Amino acid sequence: MLRLAKVMALIGGTVLTVLIVLTCVSVAGRTLGFGPITGDFELVEAGVAFAIFAFLPLCQITSGHATVEIFTDKMGPAANRWLRMVTEIVFAAVLILIAWRLGDGTYSKYSYGETTFLLQFPIWWAYALSLVASIIAAIVGVYMASVKTIEAFTGRALIPEGGEAEH
Question: Does residue 140 lie in a domain region?
Fold first, then answer.
């Protein structure tokens, strides 16, 4: 799972880097009088959505999400394991819900044949790429929920908090 999460993050990072370069070139073109890259906004919109879903698996498996530990610092390790289990289960459920709804959205965009305004590429392409990344995020979310459930019931750490265990 960690390898899958890292691959997704690398792909997401590559897409994000290409979008940054695209934006810089487009802005430079406007500034220098050559004009912007046609459809730059459409490409950035589609690419950023994919990148967000591509980064989620690595963030999930390495416990990289933001946490507020005002109350949990005062709780014992057992209570924190149970709390982490609950949050992982909820997060997995939300990721599954997002993937499901994104799947419906992809089908809808495909059925109606919607295209972007300037580039005229089918909108469902961007939805489909985000759907693939969201499904992988949901799979990693379910994996982490399972791991944290086992940890809560057994009292032993399978993946250290914030660590990268090879599973």
Answer: yes
pTM listed for this prediction? 0.88
What is the chain's Cα-based Rg?
Answer: 20
Q: What angle do CA 39, 57, 131 make, to 5 degrees?
A: 45
DSSP conformation letters of 4-63 = HHHHHHHHHHHHHHHHHHHHHHHHHHHHHTS-PPTTHHHHHHHHHHHHHHHHHHHHHHTT
Q: Is 94 helix (H, G, I), strand (E, B) or coil?
A: helix
What pLDDT sits at residue 162? 61
Domain extent, residue 30, equals 2-154
What is the total count of domains within the chain? Answer: 1
Residue 76 lies in a domain: yes
Q: Which amino acid is present at 122?
A: P
154, 159, 160, 162: CA torsion to nearest 10: -140
